[in-house]
């Protein structure tokens, strides 16, 4: 029947496939089959014959056209093997990378054809950050440099009408990394090239007054009993950990020797850490160190207490006990972390702010009418917070009893679920990190598990190499890792004092609590005259440091042992050395946190001072010490900053920054003029000018005491220094504490809000130039501001010579280094020659 041979047929996908045979006679009918099914013509496939030749043509062959074909003529059938080879030798592959990295799609084809690239169906062309390449005509490449989240999508290449496609998934760089330096970001990205994984972390911080039931609540949340719970001693942090199953929301607690939590995989379980703060006020000087912007706060309140509104007293003077004051205090503290309403702290479409706060009313067993208490507490909170934006942190009010829970303890399960739901709103939830960074986090967890709360930098290097940190630059990558971990509050690390890394804040608190000790726990210092000297003068003598260190258990364990052994062997000597190093490190850390400070210009500069533990002294007493109230001394007006809320630790930072910049005056007995919330500084060699800086509730004010003719001196540099420090500290601690500048009359009391003149009023020329003052009847505004604000010479017109004679002709505009006068282009000028001496000279030579 057949006169042709039947060789196997081969073709490449997309090409034309032809199957052909010739038969003995034109009258022979030929039928084509694939398997058992007879082939019928389609749009893409034609069957034709001419004379004895029969032909079947697939215009655009598909891989599925491959197979066994049968050609049947009469009773004869022949088999034909057909192979359609896929065009793509290598298809595009899905890519998942970290934003900022380069993404490269690549495919290889069997036959050189041109290709066209598409993203989400739209054709792509080469551009500044997209490169389209073909290598030896058969390898097609698409490279996207410095990817952003917008590059996510489906990418395809069409070659000879055949598509190959893959997805590009881009993971966001954690915010903390974005805010780090470019160097750290590039190290992070380099590490991310070797793979990334998501990590879920929840930190829950319990805060509130002492004895409101924080510890009991924590026990209940951890499914533990509350027997034997005692008020936390002094300043303390109790840290507890558990895991939460991301799918089932089940909480996993391990006790004793059960398998460590680190064995639960990161991508399926969230790490949950509870930090329980002791409620003692003294902690507030240091607690800012331990608060975090990436946490959920449980604000615990004992609702069986009388929570009626009361006057808000000055917490600095330790009269700070009303529930409302605590609630305000903590919400204000938490609200400081909201840098602004539009950034990551704002939860989209909800008008709520992060970090979230759940308020928990305890001791419900003690109240008579539960429903009434709930209602009146909610009303009370409503009145207390009014329209203040800090209420946007509040998510829920819960009421429960720790001592008499419900039978099924369901209220605690509800609270656990709430915590988990809130955790998802926090920006750090599901941060993508380089896999080896997550490995190192686990290594560190292992140390914490065996209660090694502080490790040396060398040890960290060993761990980092174990986790395959880039070998050549292990310290570079390790530093970036540690900075990130510090930033999100997982550990404490400073690049400039990197001998040790504190893995658990508990270690630091254990050290701090010997130094920053609440009054009622100070009986242990009864035999230490140096402690009493610390309280009155702020001087932290070397002997006292030694004595206090000897009380810090975590620092002495090895050292004691070492002393017991008569002949110290090498190992013990080594241990002793380590302890010494650790103590030096502790002092550096306390210095870093501004808890202690070495004032400048003290001989050899070796003595430490600790302003936050000093007893209060009356301001009048200080005035008497300096004999300010006599006619040889004139006082400038007060210049101050009034904050919406000033965290107690923050004033410490301000004062310590001044102590590092200006020399503290030395008063009788050689002591430094440092008092609780007050510092007096010499800022001139003659010591005739003294700058006093004072803290009062939510305000900082300063004044200069002039023991010489101070007429005409303008202290605008000091004023600028104060505002500069505040903005610098705000940036450093990334907290938001808005303030207004004010002036007050020289003899006025700096801490009283009455009669403060705010800068916005100063700014307003239409306001009267006179200001009434109860004590002195009236002052002109100029009298108050000339000490702190220079007249602006920048805006003087050319040829405008200012002379003493012209003084009377000019009106009413002085300048806060251009901030007051910038509103007006043609402003008039009032010149008070005495305080313009310098500028005056400049003008004369200039013209
Ligand atoms: N009746 C009643 N007593 C409670 C409740 N919660 C706690 N207590 C008791 O209050 C006391 C203080 O409880 P803690 O849990 O230690 O309070 P805390 O807030 O951790 O205290 P500090 O550690 O001092 O800050 C304990 O004696 C508890 O038994 C409660 O809901 N009802």
UniProtKB/TrEMBL annotation:
<dbReference type="InterPro" id="IPR003599">
    <property type="entry name" value="Ig_sub"/>
</dbReference>
<dbReference type="InterPro" id="IPR007110">
    <property type="entry name" value="Ig-like_dom"/>
</dbReference>
<keyword id="KW-0547">Nucleotide-binding</keyword>
<dbReference type="InterPro" id="IPR013783">
    <property type="entry name" value="Ig-like_fold"/>
</dbReference>
<dbReference type="InterPro" id="IPR036179">
    <property type="entry name" value="Ig-like_dom_sf"/>
</dbReference>
<keyword id="KW-0597">Phosphoprotein</keyword>
<protein>
    <submittedName>
        <fullName>Uncharacterized protein</fullName>
    </submittedName>
</protein>
<dbReference type="GO" id="GO:0005737">
    <property type="term" value="C:cytoplasm"/>
</dbReference>
<dbReference type="InterPro" id="IPR036388">
    <property type="entry name" value="WH-like_DNA-bd_sf"/>
</dbReference>
<keyword id="KW-0963">Cytoplasm</keyword>
<dbReference type="GO" id="GO:0000166">
    <property type="term" value="F:nucleotide binding"/>
</dbReference>
<dbReference type="Pfam" id="PF08477">
    <property type="entry name" value="Roc"/>
</dbReference>
<dbReference type="Pfam" id="PF07679">
    <property type="entry name" value="I-set"/>
</dbReference>
<dbReference type="InterPro" id="IPR027417">
    <property type="entry name" value="P-loop_NTPase"/>
</dbReference>
<keyword id="KW-1015">Disulfide bond</keyword>
<feature type="domain" description="Roc">
    <location>
        <begin position="195"/>
        <end position="426"/>
    </location>
</feature>
<dbReference type="InterPro" id="IPR052385">
    <property type="entry name" value="Obscurin/Obscurin-like_Reg"/>
</dbReference>
<keyword id="KW-0677">Repeat</keyword>
<dbReference type="InterPro" id="IPR013098">
    <property type="entry name" value="Ig_I-set"/>
</dbReference>
<feature type="domain" description="Ig-like">
    <location>
        <begin position="13"/>
        <end position="69"/>
    </location>
</feature>
<dbReference type="InterPro" id="IPR020859">
    <property type="entry name" value="ROC"/>
</dbReference>
């Amino acid at each position: 029947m057949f006169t042709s041979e039947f060789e196997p047929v081969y073709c490449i996908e997309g090409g034309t496939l032809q199957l052909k045979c010739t038969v003995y006679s034109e009258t022979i009918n030929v039928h084509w089959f694939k398997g058992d099914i007879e082939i019928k013509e389609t749009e893409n496939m034609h069957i034709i014959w001419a004379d004895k030749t029969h032909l079947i043509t697939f215009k655009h062959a598909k891989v599925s056209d491959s197979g066994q074909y049968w050609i049947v003529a009469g009773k004869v059938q022949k088999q034909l093997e057909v192979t359609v080879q896929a065009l793509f030798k290598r298809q595009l592959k899905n890519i998942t990378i970290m934003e900022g990295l380069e993404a490269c799609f690549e495919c290889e084809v069997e036959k050189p054809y041109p290709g066209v690239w598409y993203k989400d169906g739209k054709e792509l062309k080469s551009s500044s950050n997209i490169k389209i390449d073909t290598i030896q005509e058969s390898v097609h490449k698409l490279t996207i440099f410095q990817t952003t989240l917008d590059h996510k999508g489906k990418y395809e290449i069409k070659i000879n009408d055949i598509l190959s496609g893959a997805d590009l998934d881009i993971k966001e760089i954690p915010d903390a990394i974005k805010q780090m330096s470019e160097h750290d970001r590039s190290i992070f990205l380099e590490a991310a090239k070797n793979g990334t994984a998501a990590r879920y972390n929840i930190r829950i911080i319990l805060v509130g007054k002492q004895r409101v039931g924080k510890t009991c609540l924590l026990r209940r949340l951890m499914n533990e009993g509350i027997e034997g719970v005692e008020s936390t001693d002094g300043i303390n942090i109790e840290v507890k950990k558990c895991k939460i199953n991301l799918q089932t929301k089940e909480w996993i607690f391990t006790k004793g020797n059960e398998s460590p939590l680190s064995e639960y995989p990161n991508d399926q379980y969230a790490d949950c850490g509870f930090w329980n703060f002791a409620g003692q006020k003294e902690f507030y000087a240091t607690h800012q160190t331990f608060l975090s912007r990436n946490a959920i706060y449980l604000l615990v309140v004992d609702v069986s207490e009388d929570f009626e509104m009361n006057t808000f007293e000055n917490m600095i003077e330790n009269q700070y006990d009303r529930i409302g004051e605590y609630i305000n205090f903590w919400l204000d503290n938490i609200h400081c972390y909201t840098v602004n309403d539009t950034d990551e702290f704002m939860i989209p479409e909800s008008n709520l702010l992060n970090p979230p706060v759940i308020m928990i009313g305890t001791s419900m067993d003690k109240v008579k009418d539960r429903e009434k208490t709930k209602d009146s507490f909610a009303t009370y909170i409503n009145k207390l917070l009014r329209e203040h934006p800090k209420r946007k942190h509040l998510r829920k009010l819960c009421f429960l009893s720790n001592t008499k829970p419900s039978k099924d303890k369901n209220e605690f399960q509800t609270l656990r679920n709430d915590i988990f739901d809130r955790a998802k709103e926090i920006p750090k939830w599901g941060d993508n990190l380089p896999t080896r960074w997550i490995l190192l986090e686990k290594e560190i967890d292992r140390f914490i598990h065996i209660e090694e709360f502080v490790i040396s930098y060398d040890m960290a290097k060993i761990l980092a190499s174990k986790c395959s940190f880039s070998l050549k630059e292990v310290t570079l990558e390790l530093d970036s890792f540690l900075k990130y971990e510090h930033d999100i509050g997982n550990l404490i690390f400073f690049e400039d004092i990197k001998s040790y890394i504190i893995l658990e804040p508990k270690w630091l608190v254990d050290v701090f609590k010997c130094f920053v000790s609440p009054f009622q726990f100070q009986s242990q210092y009864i035999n230490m005259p140096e402690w009493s000297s610390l309280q009155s003068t702020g001087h932290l003598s070397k002997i006292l440091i030694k004595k206090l260190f000897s009380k810090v258990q975590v620092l002495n364990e090895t050292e004691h042992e070492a002393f017991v052994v008569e002949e110290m062997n090498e190992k013990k000597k080594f241990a002793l050395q380590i302890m010494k190093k650790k103590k030096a490190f502790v002092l550096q850390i306390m210095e870093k946190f501004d808890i202690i400070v070495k004032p400048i210009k003290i001989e050899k500069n070796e003595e430490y001072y600790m302003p936050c533990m000093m007893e209060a002294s009356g301001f009048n007493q200080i005035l008497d010490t300096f004999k300010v109230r006599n006619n040889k001394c004139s006082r400038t007006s007060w210049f101050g900053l009034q904050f919406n809320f000033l965290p107690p630790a923050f004033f410490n930072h301000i004062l310590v920054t001044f102590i590092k910049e200006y020399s503290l005056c030395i008063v009788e007995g050689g002591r430094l003029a440092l008092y609780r919330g007050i510092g007096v500084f010499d800022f001139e060699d003659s010591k005739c000018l003294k700058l006093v800086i004072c803290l009062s509730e939510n305000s900082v004010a300063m004044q200069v005491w002039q023991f010489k003719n101070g007429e005409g001196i303008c202290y605008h540099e000091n004023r600028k220094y104060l505002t500069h420090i505040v903005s610098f500290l705000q940036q450093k601690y990334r907290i938001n504490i808005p303030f207004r500048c004010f002036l007050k009359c020289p003899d006025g009391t700096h801490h009283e809000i009455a009669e403060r003149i705010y800068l916005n009023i100063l700014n307003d020329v239409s306001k009267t130039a006179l200001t009434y003052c109860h004590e002195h009847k009236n002052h002109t505004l100029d009298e108050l501001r000339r000490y702190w604000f220079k007249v602006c010479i920048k805006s003087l017109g050319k040829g405008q010579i200012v002379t003493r004679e012209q003084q009377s002709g000019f009106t009413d505009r002085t300048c806060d280094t251009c901030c007051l006068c910038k509103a007006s282009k043609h402003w008039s000028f009032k010149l008070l020659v005495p305080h313009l001496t310098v500028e005056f000279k400049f003008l004369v030579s200039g013209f």
